[in-house]
């Protein structure tokens, strides 16, 4: 059976009239036979298991119970009537409830005769109830053949209200399998099937809907997950390849004077192996004549800046300019000062351009940029203004890209005739598996090693009731010359309240740490940018010992002398935010601390977050936990949640399959980029069908 036939509109299936067709389309996105086939069960129900009422859980799924109706009554309620049966199985009692079809039930349900009832249970007012149960007399039930695994399909309230129950869906699928005679064309190549010992497409589809055995179900699930991930990876990798062959970049073939002088004489420390590896990867990219499009992931403090600098030196050695864009003025200034210091023995001209650059200076920079006198320009969004014209921008580096939209990224590309190479750096640890699927069209480098000699940050969890002890600890640290951050949450929805918390907190800190012994900075979102910078800079220069702030300090700020991070109401922060905040300390030689303050009331997720923080400093490990807690959609933000529109695979749980799928997709494209071989015919066909018929693939473009 073939693709063409599977594209038959669903209303041509026996049992689907115009109404049902309409509902299936609206509620489940099922337009064609193919769509119905791809409606995979969420789970399977063991219909060989019978529950006792006393065994029921408050949030249990569908269950079947054997018992008798001992009483039937109509209950009047505000909106219509309810028919309620008292049902007992000898262990306890529960209610069966109907909102419609009372007459039929009253006439047909037998009192005191054993039934098997099946359905979802609710817990209400101290009793379990089962609305609209499926009921079957035990005498009849025994005759039927029980399949051990009954598929449970995704549904919506509207569907079940309109009578399209799980049973109906099963019926439709049975009908479809009968019409198709269970024969489906293979969608993977023989090589892949053989080497991974995958079951055929026909076996997989039959068993995913009607499992013949748990083993076959497992193998079918594996095959379908693999297939789904394989085609996503194939698409991403193809895009990447096409990009490389189409979009040319300036080849930087020279490794010249600046790079060599710096590398041989002015490196302030020995590079870590991870840094060396990443620089090599970047050098390779820059040396080819395809445009580089690389994402550099590295935990806070892993040393991305030096990698950025050395990449920029390569550009300069090849006669090009480079720019480094940061999300805030403070960060830009820090990069600027840092790079000036690193380059002070080199012959490079570095400038900074931000919102607060004076007009005269701005004009000078514009001019020097156009005539090529500036080698490296550092700055904020100000770099994206139309007046900023490079003579020949060869490399654009973007630090902390999650603050920049993709649109802005592409704006930089169009500054020049030829697009510059692009390196995006981020400390937001995105689990590799997720990065692979979301950024599959970027190349990814990872610095997965911290510079040697770092003392791990000691993280503890303290309750508000221990606050005085915490304050004493802060005083000790300050007396040793250290600085301290105290951070309050600021969540948009509760902004006014949060602001009050911050101010209350600030006042109590001012009381606890009085002038002139202590100087305190405060930074929050309602301040003018100039005031924020002023306060921030006082702290950076060491004029204040305590920085009270909302999360505005989260990105990038580098104050090596700050050794304590206190996070108030830590239970309200997400894991990645906590990790980012903690990354503000531990940047100097001293032992650093992170203190997570909370009340005693903690949800179980909050407990997991706090525990994770106290147990590990590893950003990737933390991001994996975060992903499990929140789900991928939340982590990547709404724009990218389309990527997670998977039918059967789960990006978190199936990361092992994802890796295999990716390597097979790579291998396939490597040996046969056009998918032209006889062997790859099924892949080529499936791929083009997917592109043609499935708009879910749009998310990739
Ligand atoms: P991030 O990746 O967070 O941007 P930075 O580039 O700011 O990290 O580096 C953090 C600190 O570690 C800086 O003070 C930097 O000088 C230092 N550093 C970077 N690489 C090394 C290294 N290989 N050995 C020792 N110190 C290093
Ligand atoms: Mg950095």
Mind sketching the topology for me?
Elements: H1 3-6, H2 18-28, H3 33-37, E1 43-45, E2 62-76, E3 81-88, E4 93-98, H4 102-108, E5 114-120, E6 122-124, E7 127-131, E8 134-137, H5 138-141, E9 150-152, H6 157-161, H7 166-180, H8 190-196, H9 201-209, H10 214-246, H11 257-266, H12 273-287, E10 293-298, H13 304-317, E11 321-325, H14 329-342, E12 350-353, H15 359-370, E13 376-379, E14 393-399, H16 406-413, E15 421-426, H17 432-438, E16 443-447, E17 458-463, H18 467-479, E18 483-487, H19 495-512, E19 520-523, H20 529-540, E20 546-549, E21 562-567, H21 575-582, E22 593-598, H22 604-615, H23 619-630, H24 632-636, H25 655-671, H26 681-693
Parallel strand pairs: 4-7, 10-15, 10-16, 11-13, 11-14, 12-13, 14-15, 17-22, 18-20, 18-21, 19-20, 21-22
Antiparallel strand pairs: 1-9, 2-3, 2-5, 3-4, 5-8, 6-7
The protein binds adenosine-5'-diphosphate (ADP) and magnesium ion.
Magnesium ion binds at residues 304-305, 399, 556.
């Amino acid at each position: 059976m073939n693709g063409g036939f599977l594209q038959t509109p669903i209303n041509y299936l026996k049992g689907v009239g115009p109404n049902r067709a309409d509902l299936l389309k609206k509620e489940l996105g099922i337009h064609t036979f193919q769509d119905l086939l791809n409606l995979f069960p969420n789970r399977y129900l063991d219909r060989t298991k019978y529950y006792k009422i006393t065994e029921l859980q408050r949030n249990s799924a569908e269950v079947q119970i054997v018992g008798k109706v001992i009483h039937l009554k109509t209950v009047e309620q505000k909106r219509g009537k309810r028919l309620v049966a008292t049902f007992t199985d000898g262990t306890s009692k529960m209610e069966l409830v109907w909102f419609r079809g009372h007459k039929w039930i009253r006439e047909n349900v037998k009192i005191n005769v054993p039934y098997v009832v099946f359905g979802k249970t609710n817990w209400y007012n101290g009793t379990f109830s089962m609305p609209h149960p499926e009921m079957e007399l035990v005498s009849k039930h025994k005759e039927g053949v029980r399949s051990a695994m009954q598929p449970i399909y995704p549904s919506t309230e509207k569907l079940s209200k309109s009578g399209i129950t799980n049973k109906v869906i099963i019926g439709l699928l049975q009908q479809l399998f009968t019409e198709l005679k269970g024969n489906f064309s293979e969608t993977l190549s023989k090589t892949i099937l053989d080497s991974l010992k995958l079951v055929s497409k026909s076996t997989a589809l039959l068993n995913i809907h009607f499992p013949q055995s748990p083993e076959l179900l497992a193998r079918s699930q594996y095959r379908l997950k693999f297939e789904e991930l394989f085609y996503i990876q194939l698409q991403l990798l193809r895009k990447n390849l096409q990009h490389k062959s189409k979009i040319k970049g300036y080849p930087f073939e020279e490794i010249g004077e600046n790079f060599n002088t710096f590398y041989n004489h002015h490196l302030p420390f020995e590079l870590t192996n991870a840094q060396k590896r990443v620089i090599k990867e970047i050098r390779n990219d820059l040396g080819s004549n395809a445009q580089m499009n690389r994402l550099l992931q590295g935990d806070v403090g892993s040393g991305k800046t030096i990698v950025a600098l050395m990449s920029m030196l390569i550009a300069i050695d090849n006669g090009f300019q480079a720019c480094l864009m940061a999300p805030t003025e403070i960060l830009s200034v820090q990069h600027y000062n840092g790079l000036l210091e690193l380059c002070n023995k080199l012959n490079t001209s570095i400038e900074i351009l931000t919102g607060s650059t004076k007009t005269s200076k701005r004009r000078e920079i514009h001019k020097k940029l156009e005539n090529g006198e500036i080698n490296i320009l550092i700055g904020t969004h100000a770099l994206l203004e139309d007046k900023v014209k490079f003579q020949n921008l060869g490399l654009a580096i973007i630090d902390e890209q999650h603050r920049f939209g993709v649109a802005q990224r592409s704006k930089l590309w169009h500054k020049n005739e030829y697009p510059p190479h692009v390196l995006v750096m981020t400390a937001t640890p995105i689990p590799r598996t997720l990065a692979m699927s979301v950024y599959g069209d970027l190349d990814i480098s990872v610095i997965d090693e911290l510079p040697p000699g770092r003392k791990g940050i000691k993280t503890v969890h303290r309750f508000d009731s221990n606050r005085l002890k915490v304050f004493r600890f802060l005083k000790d640290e300050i007396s040793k010359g250290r600085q301290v951050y105290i951070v309050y949450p600021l969540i948009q929805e509760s902004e006014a309240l949060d602001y009050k918390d911050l101010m209350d907190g600030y006042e109590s800190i001012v009381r606890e740490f009085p002038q002139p012994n202590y100087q305190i900075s405060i930074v929050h979102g309602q301040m003018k940018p100039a005031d924020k910078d002023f306060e921030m800079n006082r702290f950076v220069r060491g004029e204040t010992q305590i920085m009270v702030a909302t999360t505005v300090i989260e990105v990038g700020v580098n104050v090596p002398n700050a050794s304590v991070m206190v996070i108030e109401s830590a239970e309200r922060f997400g894991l990645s935010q906590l990790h980012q905040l903690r990354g503000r300390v531990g940047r100097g030689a001293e032992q650093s601390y992170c203190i997570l303050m909370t009340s005693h009331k903690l949800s179980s997720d909050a407990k997991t977050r706090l525990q994770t923080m106290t147990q590990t400093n590893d950003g990737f490990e933390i991001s994996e936990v975060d992903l499990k807690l929140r789900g991928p959609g939340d982590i990547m933000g709404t724009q990218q949640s389309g990527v997670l529109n998977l039918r059967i695979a789960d990006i978190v749980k199936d990361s092992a399959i994802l890796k295999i799928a990716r390597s097979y997709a790579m291998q396939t494209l490597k040996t046969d980029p056009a998918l032209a071989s006889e062997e790859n015919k099924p892949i080529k066909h499936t791929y083009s069908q997917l592109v043609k018929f499935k708009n879910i693939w749009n998310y990739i473009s």
